[in-house]
Amino acid sequence: MESSEGFSVIQPINVNRKVYERGTLGDGSTGIQSIKFDPQDRYVAAGCEDGSIRVFNAHTGKLAYLLNQRQAAGLEEEKMPTTCIRWRPAGSSAKTKNVLISIHADGSVQHWHTTSGKRLHRLAPQNNQLYCADFNPDGTQFATAGRDLIVRVYDETTKNVVVEFQPGGAGSPGHSNRIFCVKYYNADPNILISGGWDDTVQIWDMREGCAVRSIFGPHICGDALDIKDGVILTGSWKEKEQLQTFYLGSGECIHTVDWDGGTGLRGSPDPCMVYAAQYSKHDEGEMILAGGSKSNEARFFDTMNYNKPFAGVVNMTQPVFAVDFSYSGNVAALGCGDGCIRMLSLSKTG
User: Fold this and answer.
1) How many domains is the chain partitioned into structurally?
2) Residue 69 within any structural domain of the chain
């Protein structure tokens, strides 16, 4: 793993969690739009501005696989960014393992077998731009969304559309501007949420075929939605109320997270406008990680301690566009506009 130049970690005193610089992945040749650990924490995959998907060994930091090389080189189709990547869940019944999907600004959806480098399937673009996707918990379906305001749910086996959640307007539920994040609720695969530029989060129910509730306020501009135990986390690209939590059942706001938390944890005089936010996976969401632009920094928050921040990652020259926790909870990653992935180790001290 490369040296950790280009970022540093700051922490308040008397916290029971510690964050350490682990190193940097990537050569800085193309910006990072999306990052994800695979379900076994062996790899970190990155969706890049040049259209490539770069898969790094999470332990050595070395590039293990380079996917979509021809598009990245401008040799196949139109060279367009890879806006989102998702690994197919480990519990999927599909025989082929180590599969991820990539979403592209040209509107295409591609399935990849990472270890062989083969593209298994491609859904051709249809006059749309796609920005986000997610698998349901058992990997039998996936959802996509983007510029045309429609959330489409596909059968993973047939690649056929199962449901189309339509745009809203004139008081009807649904989105009225571009959608930048869609997320399934692991506790109920019939529920998924989405958010975007229209300052709403829509809560969709597969059984109803429509949005059953809308939350107003969050301005979602990236992978900045998550849900745990009936609580929705939102990250907004704005100077205030960047992080908020809401009840899934009522849509009521529970808490607006203080970015600095009264800890004196200051890395930049500028506020952070959040592009990406998520709960930790391994511990029922005891941590939140969020990052963004303007201040070009990220923060870790302890949900068991009133959402207080316990570490900041600062001194980055470009925005944080993507964040992810490993499934073990021992490592976190930041995908940045300078083409580097900042890797961080986490531990509890008490």
Assistant:
1) 1
2) no
pLDDT of residue 80: 86
Longest dimension (CA), the chain: 54
What is the CB neighbour count within 10 angstroms for residue 264? 9
3-state SS string for the chain: CECCCCCEEECCCCCCEEEEEEEEECCCCCCEEEEEECCCCCEEEEEECCCCEEEEECCCCCEEEEECHHHHCCCCCCCCCEEEEEECCCCCCCCCCCEEEEEECCCCEEEEECCCCEEEEEECCCCCCEEEEEECCCCCEEEEEECCCCEEEEECCCCCEEEEECCCECCECCCCCCEEEEEEECCEEEEEEEEECCCEEEEEECCCCEEEEEEECCCCCCCCEEEECCEEEEECCCCCCCEEEEECCCCCEEEEECCCCCCCCCCCCCCCEEEEEEECCCCCCCEEEEEEECCCCEEEEEHHHCCEEEEEEECCCCCEEEEEECCCCCEEEEEECCCCEEEEEEEECC
pLDDT of residue 72: 54
Let me know if residue 40 belongs to a domain: no
In angstroms, the CA 30 to CA 49 distance is 6
Both tokens assigned to 229: 């135990």
Inside any domain, residue 106: no
Residue indicated by tokens 């996707």: 133
- Tokens representing 144 are 């996509």
Q: Which domain holds residue 7?
A: 1-30+258-350
Residue 11 predicted with pLDDT over 60: yes
- pLDDT, tens digit, 9 for 90 and up, residues 223-237: 999 999 999 999 999
Tell me how long the chain is: 350
Rg (CA), the chain: 19
**HSE value, Cβ hemisphere, 13 Å, CA-based, for 33:** 25
* Per-residue tokens: 227: 């849900």
